Request: fold
Amino acid sequence: MISKRALPYLLLLPATVFLIVFFVLPFLQVAWYAVTDDGGFTLQHFETMRQDWKFMPALTNTFLLVIIIVPIQIALSLGMASLVTKMKTGRELVLYIWTIPLGISDLAAGLIWLSILDQTGFMNSVLFHLGVVDQPVNHLLYNDYPALIAAVVLAEVWRSTAIVLVVLVAGMGLIPKEYGEAAEVFGASPWKRFIKVTLPLLRPSLQTALILRTILAFEVFAVAVALTGTNLPVLMSETFHWQFDLQDRHVASAYALVLLAVSIAFTLVYLRVLRVREEERA
Amino acid sequence: MLGKQFTLRGALSALAVTAGLSAAFGAGAARADGMLFWSTQARPVEEAQAVREQVLAGFGAPVDFQPQDNGPFFTRIQAELESGKGTIAVLGGLHADFSTLVPNMIDLDDVAGTLGDAHISQTFTGLSKLGTDHYKYIPWMQASYVMAANKKALQYLPKGADINALTYDQLIEWAKAMKDATGSPKFGLPAGPKGLLHRFFQGYAYPSFTGSVVTNFRSPEAVAMWDKLKELWAVAQPASTNYGFMQEPLLTGEVWVAWEHTSRLQDAFNKMPDDFVAFPAPAGPQGRGFMPVLTGLAVLKTAPDAAESKKLISYLMKPESQVAMLKATGFFPVTDAKLPDDMPASMRISGAAIQAQSGAKDAVASLLPQGLGELGGRFNKVYTDSFQRIVLAGQPVKDVLDDEAKVLKSIMDEAKAPCWAPDKPSEGTCPVN
Reply:
């Protein structure tokens, strides 16, 4: 007979073992690779990474993408979630359609947008048939930095806004209707109700959505690679490049640790800024 | 019921395994009869079979052609050398495969002497002596990178330029004329993530301008080279940084003139054989740098019957055998063997360019990097990074070269790799001056 006290721990055991074997151990190994060489401690790999001329571009590109993508997605999702919660019928169907891109892998999403934006892609065909351009234009040139950034932002927003949306829709559903109705009685405009009632009460969900989405945004990879090749290096693509093309797992591990540090830092910032008091927890 | 099914299935699979095993043993026993031809080349199953059926069948005596991965290839050679008694009759491999075996290979000067009509390009006979005065291997087949052009581009060739003897200056002039006339740049390079542009620097640009790949990496000549490449890039298709295989933009007409590996031009040549020409790479101040992927035939000291081995080599060097090899593997003759008219278009078009390139008077052969092992990727990165920093990002040439030379030096030191052609042989690690 298993005692009542042991049961929760036993139930947690499989997940814990799984996490230790497939997350904690690989993580420790990566950390070990990053700071050792032939068994001895060294910071040489971080130095190699820092001196590689692609490190700074990769870092700034990644930050720039996160800074542009995440706010756009939060704004879009707030709007879409508000619409969905107000709907009386067809709510499920709309949600279902909006979340379709979630089911597509990021590489496939990158390739879909490549087939649109490419020189021989759909966009050029349309522009050409409308007579806007007289020959196909290449929109993804290495020296057109804004266009490269815009392409990745577009594809990422299309692909992953639904993650934020799902979290926010669930959060909005938890807000009791009475608060909004009370505000309405006192004559608050819809905008005012959104700012003063919905947003503050949505803070726990916003926090979750932001942490999730920001961490994933820092890991932007396949979309950037599919659309820009090596023209727009990001931290993740450099990690991959060092691991597989350059066969140097030490420097790749150093990159991975930088990503981890950035993700942890942002998570802490969100936890602090969007602090949720105990009584606010739904 | 379930139990019965399982037993039946078990019995059947056991039977299958036994049958497979006996087939394998049977084949092994039958093969052991012929001369053992031990090779790192023609590894894909279809290629190996084609070599057996279309090339070796005509030799008259049974030959056991065994293509191997590098690991097993060298393991067996080492074992035979250590025991002092061997069964391998002939070795087929890359130039680089042979470089470590020099003291254990017999001289093949007499074979080279009997080749007579089959003229092997001098560039290759020089390489095949591996730093000695004797033929250590007989150059066998080659693949390489050449230039390809849409015939529409030919009208813009600079006045007096011979397409088979272009210079880098003429190429720049040509690319500029095409850009001016058509309004869009028509010269392209495979500078995308899947492209082989690093080989362009290692095998073509650097040897042509500096006569070196490693040692003169940051020499004044190298600075002049990068300045020229910037000029070339100014009239090149900027979408080049997205190109992997140049046959694609050549087929769409986005690009008219390109540099590329012959295997990555095949599609364009086969689909539109009348629209394209291939020709040798341009020359710089130090000559016409080119990178042959050169294979050769050699005989170990432990070969059971050296006379028979030499006979097989002579047979493989006959023009008919060389043409048969080309059909079987897509590698081109090292001799001036006449290619028959019924070849696939890609082989006909590329073949002529490859022969003209390796046979050019000013040819400077630059070998695939050697002795770098797993550092090969980082070695290539030095060249592509230099390109991206100097040409794409516009950073100062001298600073970038000084910077990257340090990386290059650390790679060479770590690999302890000696120089390879066209760099002069080094005592120990190849220096970066």
